[in-house]
Amino acid sequence: MDITQIFNGVLDGIDFFTYYDYSKIIFFLKIIAGIASTVFFYGIIYSSQKIKGIMERIHAYDTAKSVPKEKPKNVEEWKKILEKAGSGDENERKFAIIAADSLMEKILGLAGYHGENLGEKLKMIERGDLDSLDDIWEAHKVRNRIAHEADFSLSQNETKLAIFRFEKALKELEYI
Prior knowledge:
By secondary structure, the protein is mainly alpha-helical. The chain has helices at about 5-20, 25-65, 70-85, 90-110, 120-125, 135-150, 155-170.
């Protein structure tokens, strides 16, 4: 095989692709391009929504860190709740749990979590964002029993456990 045969073979290949009748496959290429474009378009929209959600969580976390923390005032407020929680009077202990729950709701609101009540705000928190999330839920359940069960009897041990759980979360949030 000499060089002229190779050169003629290359030219024949170029002529084939240059003069080939592509009209037979253009329709199918258009369909494939349309499907691919649609998939990529929806992929962009989906990714944008996920990124928006992530950015909102990051902003909420940054806001929580940037919330001005007046430690002496916060500690003083928490001490008042602890005094009521240590009371022998069951009604004072119930009041302490409700006050701690309200305080937690306020702090999470300042941190950027939205919702009408603490339960809704807790649903907005990802598990990895707050280590004490389960503790807050358990303490909030005690508060709900106080608020919704007229004959609920709150023991001192239940009070201590619920207050400890709220305190753990408040420390993690650097409120106290």
